[in-house]
Amino acid sequence: MQTAYTVLILLMLVSVSRLVGRVIPLPLPLVQIAAGALLAWPTLGLHVALDPELFLFLFLPPLLFSDGWRMPKRALWQLRGPILTLAVGLVLFTVVGAGYFIHWLLPTIPLPVAFALAAVLSPTDAVAVSAISQNRLPTPLMHMLQGEALMNDASGLVTFKFALAAAVTGVFSLTSASLTFVAVALGGLAIGVALSWLVGRLRAWMIARGWDDPATHVVFMLLLPFAAYVLAERLGASGILSAVAAGMMQSWLDLLPRQTSTRLLNRSVWSLLEFAFNGLIFLLLGLQLPDIIKAVVSHEPTLWPTLFYRCLDVLAIFVALVLLRFIWVQSIWRLSVLLRRLRGKGELTQVPTARSCWLLTVGGVRGAVTLAGVMSVPMLMGAQAFPERDLLIFIAAGVILLSLVSACIALPLLLRGIEKSPDDKRRQEVREAWRKTAEAAIHSLESEEVVPQDAAQAALAAERKARIMSEYRHQLDVFNDSAEAQALAFQMDLLERRLRLKALRAQRLELYRLSRQHEIGDDVLREVLADLDLSEANLGQVR
């Protein structure tokens, strides 16, 4: 029962921290870390022992799967060059540079272990950056950070596993490791894509036979990242890349017919799952902080001097990571401009100013994946304790905290005076999509011939058909190219939505009255209320 109580307490804290984060002007991850540390205070004394392998298995696959699902694929392809240089080149640059620096700064950490620590410090968290910047970052920079976070989760953790294996076995060959890395990465991608495709085919087969219950299909989707991860690991491939590939593939397979209810439920379930898992990871970091600090200073004769010097080590490592990232971003960006000039392709759409380079640098916030990875470091190496495991976790936790705090301070300052320009291209695409879909609907209704049984039914059918077609013609007016026509249509649309919203709320109040007076049963209440809620959700925000 104690485990159940602990889980319920943590889930409650995740929800409460979201509410507190709206009052306190701090990013949500910092609030959750502080809440976890407060809960672990000796007077409250909540202690959670983490199994490294279980922690990695429970948290990483669904988070990486969700990242792959949400990532805009076209933006990922258009910015593939900068994203790959950040997600692969920068990871390797960080592993080598930061690895040697960590080993020089802390000689008690063996070089392979220092490389492993540098690798696990490489993945970034675009969700935390978005929360801190409040979506004020220029769209190309935000897409770069999102794509980098998606790809370097995989490249950083795969490199981390190789470095960890070298530390445990004491054997490392660059040629062998490079070939194995490519095989493991391609194998993971192939397994994720294949398994996701098979699940999509299975779901299509079920839908064709009328088995389209949304809950069943959502459960399949929830199990898919874990299945992709486990299958790839059992076959010697990368479970991390397999989960990412499964998510990216599933975003294409999610367009199956007769799946409207499933998509609505699936989005809600995954939003809840992502929020809960991210929150739990940062809460667990806060809960582990007292134990991490205690483990780091337990073998030392003095507490505060030792803790002070360890904090200085963390600060030095963090500064080294920031400098390495800035050097890489500045160099690669300017090199890409030079190459484009030599090839006669013109300038980049985003000019590499000092501010944009610092935005990309400070935007490399470390988060949930770094913590999940470092927590997976084994307790033992052979028959002996893993060297400086507690110190590794302390450094990772400190870097996460420093990156969050520095982003909270630096990003608002760097974004000062920058107004995010409206994405005119995207808005034009939205208008064009609505216009063309409305035209297709009208053409479909015009070609539809209803053959009723008598004249009265024919008149009613023609009236209903005309009413539906008028709604689609109204959509065409809303997305007309004329600015005056758009303004008038939007005003009428807003008025109509307000009237519909008022009518829906009146329906809901009457439904509640009928229920209170026992004129309808609970099952009828739930069924009608669900339809009313869905109709109101379709209206969107009405101001």
Automatic annotation (TrEMBL):
GO BP terms in the entry: regulation of intracellular pH; sodium ion import across plasma membrane
Residue ranges of every copy of the Cation/H+ exchanger transmembrane domain listed in the record: 13-416
Keyword Acyltransferase: no
Transmembrane residue ranges: 38-60, 81-103, 109-133, 154-175, 181-202, 268-287, 307-336, 357-379, 391-415
Topology class, membrane: Multi-pass membrane protein
Compartments in which it is found: Cell inner membrane; Cell membrane
Keywords from the UniProt entry: Antiport, Cell inner membrane, Cell membrane, Ion transport, Membrane, Sodium, Sodium transport, Transmembrane, Transmembrane helix, Transport
Protein name: Na+/H+ antiporter
Keyword Zinc attached: no
GO molecular function ontology, one term from the record: potassium:proton antiporter activity
An annotated GO cellular component: plasma membrane
Domain of life: Bacteria
Function statement: Na(+)/H(+) antiporter that extrudes sodium in exchange for external protons.
